[in-house]
Structure formats: C-alpha cells, structure tokens
C-alpha cells in the first residue's frame, strides 16, 4: 500500500485504520462513519458469540461477575428497570446501551437478548473501543488531541 498521507477512517484501503475524533473529521460523511462503526460492532458481537467469548443472558452474566471475571456489559435499551438495577448492583464496571432486545437477538440468532457480558481480553478491548467510538460520533466527547 502506497503511503499518501491521507487518513483512512473507513478502512477501505486495507491495512490499519486510525482513530480520529468526530470533531476532527472534516471531509468525511459522519453518517457513513457511523454506519461502518455499527457494522463492525455487530460483526464483533457475532464473532464473539460464535467463538464462545461472550456470554448472553442474566444468569450467565451473573455467574461471570460472581467468578470475578473482568469485563463490561452490553445492556439492551429496553431492558426492565428491575433487571438493570439487579445486575448493576453486583457489577461495578462499564456498561453500554445501544441496541434493543430484538436487535441483539437478531444478531445472535435468538429471539431476544437483554444482557451480554464481554470479558476483558484483546477481543473485548477492541469491541469496547468500537462502541466508544460509535458513542462519540453520537454526540459524546472523547479526548481530542488537536
């Protein structure tokens, strides 16, 4: 790959992409970037499920938390308040809410999925980074190094 000095945010040219904060993206279509990040998040969740890296459901997440496994949670946006309160009372880590139960279930070949536990491995850190980038494009602020 020839070096051109351009940033390849969408990773269309092959090789490694780099992170650019949303405020620094001038020439890129922000919707295109969001769609690409969403596709990558979905693919990573599917790969994690097929590779038995992630755990789905309240009971499996509860067991992993009780074992002391480090990681983070992906909770559905329409999760019951009582379930959310119970799992967060036990878990003192990061959690993200970006999908509905039906969407998470469709990604994993299930009917509905409310809770996903992702362990803190290289895979988990990559997925966490993608989710944080997506949420930053939604309007959050990440450390911009201008």
Tell me about this structure.
The protein is 45% helix and 10% strand. The chain has helices spanning 30-50, 58-67, 81-90, 101-108, 122-137, and strands spanning 55-56, 71-75, 95-96, 115-119. Mean pLDDT is 83; it is low at 141-146.
The count of helical stretches stands at 5
Q: How much of the sequence is in beta strands? A: 5-15%
Task: Give the helix level as a range of percent.
Answer: 40-55%
Number of domains: 1
CATH topology: 60s Ribosomal Protein L30, Chain: A
Write down the overall geometry. globular
- Low-pLDDT ranges: 141-146
Order of helices and strands: HEHEHEHEH
Number of strands: 4
For this structure, what is the CATH homologous superfamily? Ribosomal protein L30/S12
How much is the radius of gyration in Å? 17 Å
- Termini gap: 27 Å
Major beta sheet, strand line-up: 1-4-2-3
CATH class: Alpha Beta
Structural class: alpha+beta
Largest sheet entry: 4 strands, mixed
User: In the CATH classification, which architecture applies?
Assistant: 2-Layer Sandwich
Q: What's the average pLDDT?
A: 83
List the helices and strands and how they pair.
Layout: H1 30-50, E1 55-56, H2 58-67, E2 71-75, H3 81-90, E3 95-96, H4 101-108, E4 115-119, H5 122-137
Parallel strand pairs: 2-3
Antiparallel strand pairs: 1-4, 2-4
Helix pairs in contact: 1-5
């Amino acid at each position: 790959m020839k070096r051109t000095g351009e940033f390849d945010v969408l990773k269309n040219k092959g090789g490694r992409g780099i992170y650019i904060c949303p405020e620094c993206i001038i020439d890129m279509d922000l919707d295109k970037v969001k769609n690409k990040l969403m596709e990558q998040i979905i693919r990573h969740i599917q790969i994690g499920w097929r590779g038995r890296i992630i755990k789905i459901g309240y009971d499996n997440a509860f067991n992993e938390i009780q074992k002391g496994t480090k990681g983070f949670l992906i909770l559905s946006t329409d999760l019951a308040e009582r379930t959310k309160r119970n799992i967060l009372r036990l878990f003192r880590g990061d959690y993200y809410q970006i999908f509905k139960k039906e969407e998470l279930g469709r990604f994993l070949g299930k009917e509905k999925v409310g809770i996903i536990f992702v362990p803190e491995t290289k895979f988990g850190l990559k997925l966490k980074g993608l989710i944080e980038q997506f949420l930053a494009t939604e309007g959050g602020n990440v450390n911009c190094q201008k």
